[in-house]
Amino acid sequence: MSSQPERTSETSAKEPLSDAVQAALQVTRRGCEELLPEADWIRKLQRSEASGQPLRIKLGLDPTAPDIHLGHTVVLNKLRQLQDIGHTVIFLIGDFTSMIGDPSGRNTTRPPLTPEQIKANAETYYRQASLVLDPARTEIRYNSEWSDPLGARGLISLASRYTVARMMERDDFTKRYKAGTPISVHEFLYPLMQGYDSVALRSDLELGGTDQKFNLLMGRHLQQEYGQEPQCILTMPLLVGLDGVDKMSKSKGNYIGISEPANAMYAKILSVSDELMWTYYTLLSFRSEADIAALKAEVLAGRNPKDAKVQLAHEITARFHGVAAAEAAQQDFENRARGGVPDEIPTVTLSGAPLGIGALLRQANLAPSATEANRLIEQNGVRVDGNLVSDKGLKLAAGTYVVQVGKRKFARVELA
User: Which of 40, 133, 248, 373 could be 358's S-S partner, Cβ–Cβ 3.0 to 4.6 Å?
Assistant: First the structure.
């Protein structure tokens, strides 16, 4: 997304950096896409070290869905790393901005959420984020605290501090305008209100995905307009999903939810490609960069990449479910790989025996349609009691069967 960052010098501070500042800078840079302006961030780190005053680091998330996936945790992980070196973390829930709808990366107007939807989603956000952040050292804020009291007069004053020409520098707005696609006036308010959050919180650094760069720079601009020292911005890459193509997204079905069962989370991580695995290590693992580099060297020297992937799957699953659950998930996966049946599988009760295999798969929610069920059988993806099914016309009599589709889907079907 295009943006016009301020022409602030990004040369390093002239004086030698202390060990603590160098370490903090290394933590900040790990995996990041951009750190703007880096020279300003170094000065802030030096000032913090000299004064003993922690810096204020902000991350805002709009509760547009009830659950967080691993893609969201890329910035949460960075927040935790900065929290661990002593800085103040502000987890901002955008309950007000959610009612506008973020236009970032959109070619249509995003429908705003209702207050009821926002409230329901916000209730789960911090609970899930707390699996990454240290709750005792996290400041929780809602941007309705200052956005609601702003009122019409304050909103008009805020809007006067940015031009339409600058707003139209956004790629998504420019493309929509040229294509004749409607842009609602309220969409211009979104980056203004997100930027005003930085003013209200007096943030020193704001984090976001690469698609948020324009909004983050807006925070810098508005802080200057209001006489504050401008924040630095740190953008993190958008995590590629399980398909290895698009960014992780629930709408694309290529995501790993942090509230998913441990077994499902573990298996999904193991399904990531060998190449993408290293990006996941950089953005999701808490292992040091030196450890990751050593592991990668071992794989390049001939070690099975699956060994590295198993370690990654165990680490991430343990983070959200505990070590015992991660070890159980590992055992479950290995059991399935050997053709075994997991310890816990859903039980489905059906009637209509004798029942055709296609109808059984559909009714047991193991296939979305009869056509898909037939395709799975043709691809040797269906087993009943461990036996491969090759006959699409198979009918099952009354009884209890363990039905398997692919490597991960199982059901105990009680057919009457």
Answer: 373
